[in-house]
Amino acid sequence: MLSETLLESFALVKLQAVVRDASLSNIVVGFLVLAVTALAADYAYMLYLRSRMPPGPFPLPIVGNTFSLPENKPWIYFEELSKKYKTPLITFWIGRNPTVWINDAWCAHEILEKKAQIYSSRPRMVVFGELGSGQSSLVTMRVRNQRERDHWRIHRKLMHIGVGIQSVRGYREIQNNESKIVAYDFLREPKEYVKHLERYATSVVSIIGFGRRVASYNDPIITEVIALMQLAADLNVPGKSFPMLMETFPILAKFPRFMPWFKGVNARGQKGGHYFFHTLAEEALEQYAQKSPSEQAAMPTPYVKTLFEEGNKHNLPVAELSSLTGNLFGAGADTSSSTLVTFILACCAFPEPMKKAQAEIDRVVGPDRSPHWDDSPNLPYVNAFVKEVFRWRSVAIIGGQPHSPTQDDVYNGWLIPAGSWVQGNVWAIHHNEREFPDPDRFYPDRFFKDNDHHRPFPGERGYMTFGWGRRVCSGQALAEQGTWITVARLLWGFNVRKARDPQTGREIDVDIFAFTNGLNMRPQPFQCEISPRSEEIRETILREGKQALDDLKIHDGESRYKMSTFYQQQRRKIAEEPVIDEHGNIKIVKIKG
Ligand code: HEM
Ligand SMILES: *[C@@H]1O[C@H](CO)[C@@H](O)[C@H](O)[C@H]1NC(C)=O
After folding, report:
1. What family is this (predicted)?
2. Strands 97-102 vs 421-424: parallel, antiparallel or unpaired
3. Contacts 24+ apart (CB under 8 A), 22-29
4. Which of left, alpha, beta for 64 (phi over 0: left; psi -120 to 50: alpha)?
């Protein structure tokens, strides 16, 4: 009886196990069938889209074309694909995500400028967006509907108050004085030319933003912020290794930050830089308030002050306000200084244009003073020279951030689906023989209509260095103005040439292709010789430099904060939320406890 029951129950257990196994394997099989079907359907849809989109290499399921990316500088690869397929637009699949690369100025103009109405958004960006500022900063902000559009307009407007064309004229003398100090520094310490240029670019945005200049190139605001920007720029280039590979497999971004594929991505998560910039802003407001009324009257109102007052009218969260000040540094410092390093490389590699520009400046300006913007109408060759600096090796080599259409668009019979990445390949655009014959040659003469290298180009500037349409660089006017005065002054003041081997006296060559790999590129370190052009000029540089240091004294000041140690010091503050009161002042309030 007992054993019977036992037997029965044993059989029952067994039966149950069989049933369970069956259902388990059924589930597994069912799941597999479902997965394969989903995969097939997904892939079929990819191929369907592909058949309607611009040409490009054949994508694999799930991974797309990601693994055919080169290790470095994908913009050159996309230029090659464009030539191979004989088409200005290329579709390249980053995972299941189609990206369209525009390799031609006219198409970029037709699409990103003329259809700016629908091309003013940004796509979903995993690595640079979601893992960084969360696409709440102007640079990455999406504009897909009316609500987002209104929000984005406020950001553009607030950025414009700071660095729009009107305000930028008011920053001329700041840039002028700071660039006099660059010339002065080049005299004292020519070998550190890169650091001087970084200091210049950072100091200009720091004066504009905070009212406080950056006097030393060892100031952590330079060394840390530029390093951070270069890291971020490296991360924003399509790639087939981690962490960029998360763009191909977005699901991986949902894992905890200690997983190995996050290497290099800000381990602190979303909070990122904005508390840091917020604290700097607070400090700057304090320092400004301590200045005497006459000092305040002698300087432009720091952008943070205006920004917090204006931002308050729109009820912007502090994180977003801070991101707007952060943009000055994030978007403005590394880009502007890299452009100037490129200028130095161009002078080393192509001495002729430098000499021609110097002859023009000697005629118009002479040795007793340095050039000023008022001279610009009389310096057509210098103007063309600056254009060529922007064209020859543009810093934002893939046009900064991708654009994304908010609705399906058809261009030249090709579909560009809503939400896809559309990236202007500035390398290919500025490197196209049709618009720029002999494109690797630094040749300012090409901008003169009667030159045999002159070709038509959409838009009056003759280059697309600052992007397109409604997302065009907010800091363009500031960057163009500052680049002009610094390039003009350095051409006036210095001979730049290849360094010579101290033993043999032979010139050390420079490589005009040796640039960094990030989406903001700059020349790899190179040696050069920078020397004043004459004794008279040397004296003028010294005189003007000392005067400028004196003039800029009202902007002297230091920060108590460093990004690298900020988060340890500030751990307490992060549990608290900054808010703005009705007077535009920032207050810190506790969130909990
Ligand atoms: C040589 C210097 C610079 C270059 C080459 C440059 C280039 C660019 C490019 C290509 C874009 C993307 C445009 C697009 O999506 O079509 C951009 C965006 C932006 N830049 Fe610049 N930039 C420079 C300096 C600056 C400066 C000095 C500032 C601010 C002070 C600045 C602020 C911004 C901002 C806020 C955006 C985002 C605009 C938006 O998405 O709506 N940039 N820049
Ligand atoms: C900078 O230089 C000019 C003269 O070139 C001067 O008028 C101006 O006040 C200076 N100061 C500042 C803070 O820009």
Report:
1. Belongs to the cytochrome P450 family.
2. parallel
3. none
4. left
Cβ atoms of 528 and 498 within 8 Å: the answer is yes
Does ligand 1 lie within 6 Å of residue 423's CB atom? no
| Residue 258 C-beta-side C-alpha neighbours within 13 Å | 0
Cis peptide leading into 458, omega within 30 of 0?
A: no
Pocket mutation for ligand 1, best pick of 466, 468, 481, 483 (most atoms within 8 Å of C-beta):
466
In terms of pLDDT, which residue wins out, 128 or 522? Answer: 522
Buried b (16+ CB within 10 A) or exposed e, 493-520: bbbbbbbeeeeeeeeeebebeebbbbbb
Rounded Cα distance, 292 and 168, in Å: 24
Confidence of residue 276 (pLDDT cuts 50, 70, 90): confident
Which ligand 2 atom minimizes the distance to the CA of 547? 2
pLDDT of residue 443: 98
Question: Among 159, 139, 205, which Cα is nearest to 400's?
Answer: 139
What would the pLDDT profile of 254-265 be if each residue is shown by its tens digit? 888 888 888 767
Look at ligand 2, atom 3, and give the residue with the nearest C-alpha. Answer: 173
Whether residue 429 has its Cβ less than 6 Å from ligand 1 = no
CA-nearest residue, atom 14 of ligand 2: 174
CA of residue 481 to ligand 1 center, whole Å: 14
* Ligand 1 touching residue 333 (CB < 6 A): no
The chain-wide mean pLDDT, for the chain, equals 90
Task: Report the alpha-carbon distance of residue 77 to residue 503 in Å, rounded.
Answer: 40
Instruction: Give percent of the chain above pLDDT 90.
Output: 72
pTM: 0.91
Could you say which ligand is closest to the alpha carbon of residue 204? 1
Residue 591 is predicted with a pLDDT of 41
